[in-house]
Design brief:
With 388 residues, this protein is of the alpha+beta class. The protein is built from 13 helices and eleven strands. The strands form two sheets. Strands 5-11-10-7-8-9-6 form a seven-stranded mixed β-sheet, covered by helices on one side. Strands 2-3-1-4 form a four-stranded antiparallel β-sheet. The structure holds 2'-deoxyadenosine-5'-diphosphate and magnesium ion (MG).
Length: 388
């Protein structure tokens, strides 16, 4: 099991407000190993480099001014999933959105005084660690309670410390698609079998979809226009269960350079607009709604079954369905990065063969009551506008 390192910083307000111990205590108590730590007063140039990717933002000058208000505590913490878990422990960027129990959720109020920083990916962690620390400041030692923190003890690597990670390839593909390991996660996943009626079919006509304007990333060239495309289908009634799916597709679009869009299978414009207005998830993909449920009905006809929501569809550059996956029981905690869909989309984009479960071996028995029709679900699960 590889070690992972993340760069965590207590900003000037965290230092001044006497929260160093509180914040460090949380990482210690969690079980992560402290690899490097210093109280330091970085220069303006150093901070501008650290926040380089935000240079064009309106708040950038204010951010740099804030970061220059006093010394900061720079740290490197190591452990399994340290980057992602570190972000979860920090909470959302804006403390108003951070849940109680997170550092920002518990200890601060204003986005411009959000007391801590944490790397947002392994790639930026490596960059930030190299910016803030020399190699000889990174301590290699064995954590005495390792066997009590990990079931499978993390493998120590040869000194000196962790080598700088190689620049990630444009497409992070599985090194080889040998075996298809079905995902054994906490949520129930409906597997797509090789005899799934959608596989190999052309995308049904979607020209009746109507874009929901959100002011950014509204353009969509359509399926089958020379690029692989990932669609996520969801509906307003799914509420927070839909957000991880929409965020995941948004992340695939950014990381893999594919086309993506979200289809809100609600047929009323007001429901779609409501989702966008109240949507707390990061969604950088165009969204559409489905007047008259024409697209939903076309997909149902193709599947000879009601569409399952949320679900993902992956199309090749010509618009043929190469994989679809329905997800049920999704929660905010689901780990899509370990799902079969994640595996398949990376394999496909990298030009590797997709994994297969073979045929389902299930013959349909129409005497058994099937799922509630989508129409019924949509009709009965109207969510009061107030909660949106
Ligand atoms: P994070 O610190 O969660 O990684 P970020 O990288 O997007 O968030 O932004 C860096 C910092 O910039 C953030 O911690 C606080 C500040 N910031 C972000 N968005 C801001 C905004 N809309 N107004 C003021 N400051 C903001
Ligand atoms: Mg950041």
């Amino acid at each position: 099991m590889p070690r992972e390192r993340t760069f965590i910083m207590i900003k000037p307000d965290g230092v001044q407000r006497g929260l160093i111990g509180n914040i460090i205590g949380r990482f210690e108590a969690k079980g992560f190993k402290l690899v490097a730590l210093k109280l330091t007063s970085p220069s303006k140039e150093h901070l501008e480099t650290h926040y380089e990717d935000l240079k064009s933002k309106k708040f950038f000058p204010g951010l740099i001014e804030y970061m220059l208000m006093g010394p900061v505590v720079a740290m490197v913490w190591e452990g399994m999933n340290a980057v992602k878990t570190g972000r979860v422990m920090l909470g959302a960027t804006n403390p108003a959105d951070s849940l109680p129990g997170t550092i920002r959720g518990d200890l601060c109020i204003d986005v411009g005084r959000n007391i801590c920083h944490g790397s947002d990916s392994v790639e930026s962690a490596n960059k930030e660690i190299a910016l803030w620390f020399n190699d000889d400041e990174l301590n290699n030692y064995k954590h005495h309670s390792e066997a009590f923190v990990y079931e499978n003890v993390l493998k120590e690597e040869a000194a000196p410390a962790l080598p700088a990670a190689p620049a990630p390839a444009a497409v992070a593909a599985p090194s080889a698609v040998k075996e298809f390991a079905p995902y054994e996660g906490e949520y129930e996943e409906l597997v797509t079998y090789s005899d799934d009626p959608s596989l190999g079919k052309k995308c049904p006509d979607m020209s009746t979809l109507v874009a929901v304007p959100k002011g950014h990333h509204d353009e969509f060239v359509g399926v089958g226009n020379g690029k692989p495309t990932c669609l996520v289908m969801f509906a307003k009634y799914l509420k927070y269960e839909a957000f991880p799916a929409v965020e995941a597709v948004s992340a695939y679009a950014a990381e893999l350079g594919i086309d993506s869009a979200g289809l809100l299978l609600d047929n009323k414009e007001k429901d779609a607009k409501r989702f966008v207005e109240k949507n707390p998830c990061k969604c950088d993909i165009p969204l559409f709604f489905d007047p008259g449920w024409k697209v939903k009905d076309a997909f149902s006809a193709m599947l000879n079954d009601p569409v399952t929501l949320p679900s993902f569809y992956l199309f090749d550059k010509d618009g043929t369905i190469v994989w679809r996956q329905a997800l049920s029981g999704m929660t905010g905690n689901m780990k899509l990065d370990k799902s079969q869909f994640d595996y398949q989309i990376r394999a496909f984009v990298a030009g590797n063969p997709l994994g297969s479960h073979g045929p389902s071996g299930i013959s349909r028995d129409d005497s058994v009551a099937g799922p509630v029709s989508q129409e019924d679900v949509f009709a009965t699960q109207e969510v009061a506008d107030a909660v949106w």
